[in-house]
Design brief:
The complex is a heterodimer of chains A (about 325) and B (about 250). Chain A has helices at about 15-30, 140-145, 145-150, 230-240, 250-255, 260-280, 285-295, 310-329; strands at about 40, 45, 55, 60, 65-70, 70-75, 80-85, 95-105, 110-115, 120-125, 155-165, 165-170, 175-180, 180-185, 200, 205-210, 215-220. With about 325 residues, chain A is of the alpha+beta class. Chain A has a domain at about 15-30 and about 40-85: OB fold (Dihydrolipoamide Acetyltransferase, E2P), CATH 2.40.50.100. Chain A has a five-stranded mixed barrel with strand order 8-9-10-12-11. In chain A, strands 1-6-7-3 form a four-stranded mixed beta sheet, with no helix packed on it. In chain A, α1 packs parallel to α8 (about 310-329). The longest helix of chain A has 21 residues, at about 310-329. The two termini of chain A are about 40 Å apart. Chain B has about 250 residues and is α+β, with helices and mostly antiparallel strands. Chain B contains four helices and ten strands, in the order ββββαβαββαβββα. Chain B has helices spanning about 80-95, 120-135, 160-165, 210-235, and strands at about 15-20, 30-35, 40-50, 65-70, 105-115, 140-150, 155, 170-175, 180, 200-205. In chain B, α1 (about 80-95) crosses α2 (about 120-135). The radius of gyration of chain B is 19 Å and the shape is globular. The chains are: A alpha+beta (about 325), B alpha+beta (about 250). The interface between A and B is large, with 46 and 40 residues.
Chain lengths: ~325, ~250
């Protein structure tokens, strides 16, 4: 029985060999000689001293030698040499798209858990009101905060900045806000690279995919961005009942809320694909997710995706893809 | 004269070591270090920081390190305060304090089990936790406990029973040596050794000067094994992340 690199999936002997081979192939592809060497503290970094170079984070000079002050991987960008730590805690930057869960409803704000060392704050004023009008938030709005978000709701927002009481988020556009009818997944944050597009709508499956930079990923049924004009009808109703009760929905609301079985299966497939990729430690991008989902269509049962055979297949497929990409480029 | 140790170890033999990092979710860095099996000394260390602001009497041009020691049972007393102070001085000498001035890094030590050689175990755990948090260090520190028996014999890494029967003992902290990363195919055989130094030494009981130097030598020899273990543990696993190649 083989357990590889912290994977909790028991592998048979042949699967273990195949997986090892695929991973070794990947490692040999990625590290070019010794320039991507991993260092521990007080290791000397091999630098060509004749060319000018700049010392970056995680390095310092001792006796004319460049030594590492943290444990990590040496990175070189033009003349900059720095050490990147591997176990990176999510470090928020302004403008990051993050997905989080509401922990608390506080006066004029919501506290959101985003896998960071402190909770993020979403101010009531940074959130669009349900009726869409831009106006000053009154005390009535403050009392109705629960009708917008409650505890344990999943929310998508953007990082606005660091202020005195912590990390602040904003959700001013229609694509941010409450996320419903889907799954929230948690993966190590360094597997999600910052790209131009974090919102993906996969038409053939009818699902929405949001890759949060903090390692939280949302996979759910596609939700059309609500049009502000249509909200008027709902706002009239909400004057009478402040909070629509979850248990007393009308028949037509229940029909609208029903997700077809096919879409639900696709959501599960995508979620399992992301789980497998994160267990193997591959960085998660939309292309690799779609490739894995297409590959999984050949499996009978969706839960087989979490088994050992599929895991090995994904690793081998990735090794193939990278080696063919290298041959081309 | 040979001493028979209760668990059958030789005088220079250390207990089996185990170290795991990244166990606490909310802390910036965390590590657990245990020595011995099955009855062991286990310490959990968590690092939070750097946070803004230093304490009142501290120099604002340097980073400040704050240590909180939590005993297994009971309230914190004088013994815990002493441990905190020793740990603080030791960690101040291995961290590079000028990188983040006017910040505080908090290190919290929780004793899970105590079976002898507690302070060295805590120092090792704190060092591993600092590495896990990505805080820049000058070098790694490894620490060991040397005891002097009434017969004049020196033994390393005692259990609690052995410790109580000893004439004197010393906790020693040594810096870790620098190694060069060898380029492939290089003819360079050995890395350079950093000058042998000692970071911290805490002694209890009465011992003669020669005995003390004897302890130092034995301790230094044993730290080679400890440093190897620590380095191997800290060697980051290079993930199959091809974004650099592509």
């Amino acid at each position: 029985m083989g357990r590889m690199r912290g994977l909790e999936i028991p592998l048979t002997q042949t699967q273990k060999i195949r997986l090892q081979r695929a991973l070794q192939k990947l490692e040999s592809l990625s590290s070019k000689a010794n320039s991507n060497a991993s260092v521990t503290v007080a290791d000397s970094i091999p630098v060509n001293y004749d060319d000018g170079f700049l010392k970056g984070h995680g390095t310092s000079e001792l006796n004319g030698e460049v030594i590492a002050t943290v444990c990590g991987v040496v990175e070189r960008v033009n003349k900059l040499v720095y050490v990147r730590t591997l176990r990176a805690r999510y470090k928020p930057e302004v403008g990051d798209i993050v997905v989080g869960r509401v922990i608390e409803v506080a006066p004029k704000r919501w506290r959101i858990d985003i896998n960071f060392s402190q909770d993020a704050v979403l101010m009531l004023s940074s959130m669009n009101l349900p009726d869409g009008i831009q106006r000053r938030r009154t005390a009535v709005d403050e009392l109705n905060m629960r009708s917008i978000f409650e505890e344990n709701d999943v929310v998508c927002a953007e990082v606005r900045g660091f202020h005195h009481d912590g990390l602040q988020l904003q959700a001013r556009s229609q694509k941010y806000g409450k996320l419903e009818r889907g799954q929230l997944l948690s993966i190590p944050p360094y597997l999600v690279k910052r790209r131009k597009q974090h919102f993906h709508y996969i038409e053939e499956y009818g699902i929405d995919l949001i890759l949060g930079c903090n390692g939280f990923i949302w996979v759910g049924e596609h939700a059309e961005p609500k049009d502000d004009m249509v909200i008027d009808e709902q706002a009239n109703k909400s004057d009478q009942i402040l909070k629509p009760s979850k248990y007393s929905m009308t028949l037509e609301e229940q029909e609208r809320a029903y997700t077809p079985l096919e879409t639900r299966q696709n959501v599960c497939r995508t979620a399992n694909a992301i789980r497998v990729l994160s267990t193997l430690g591959f960085s998660v991008t939309i292309e690799i997710i779609m490739d894995t989902v297409t590959m999984s269509m050949s499996l009978k049962e969706i839960h087989e995706m979490l088994g050992s055979e599929f895991c090995v297949l994904v690793a081998e497929r990735e090794a193939e893809r990278r080696s063919s990409a290298k041959k081309k480029g | 004269m040979e001493i028979d140790r209760i668990d059958g170890r030789s005088p220079n033999q250390l207990r089996p070591l185990a170290c795991s990092r990244g166990i606490l979710n909310r802390a910036h860095g965390s590590a657990s270090w245990s020595q011995g099996f099955p009855r062991d000394t286990k310490v959990l260390a968590a690092v939070y920081g750097p946070k803004a602001g230093t304490k009142k009497n501290e120099n604002p041009e340097r980073a400040c390190i704050e240590v909180i020691w939590k005993p297994k049972t009971g309230q914190s007393g004088k013994q815990e305060k002493e441990y905190e102070m020793i740990l603080k001085r030791t960690l101040q000498s291995i961290c590079i304090l000028t990188i983040n001035p006017n910040t505080t890094t908090s290190i919290i030590i929780q004793v899970v089990q105590d079976d002898g050689s507690l302070l060295p175990c805590a120092i090792n755990a704190a060092c591993a936790a600092l590495v896990d948090a990505g805080i820049p260090l000058k070098h790694l520190a490894v620490s060991i406990c040397c005891c002097l028996a009434s017969s004049g014999y020196v033994i390393l890494d005692p259990t609690k029973q052995e410790e109580e029967g000893m004439k004197a003992f010393a906790y020693l902290v040594f810096p870790n040596s620098i190694k060069l990363i060898l380029p492939e195919g290089s003819s360079h055989a050995q890395g350079e050794r950093m000058e042998d130094g000692i970071v911290t030494s805490v002694t209890h009981g009465a011992m003669s000067v020669e005995d003390y130097f004897h302890c130092l030598d034995r301790g230094r020899a044993a730290t080679a094994k400890l440093s190897d273990f620590l380095r191997r543990n800290l060697q980051p696993q290079v993930l199959a992340d091809g974004s650099k190649a592509g």
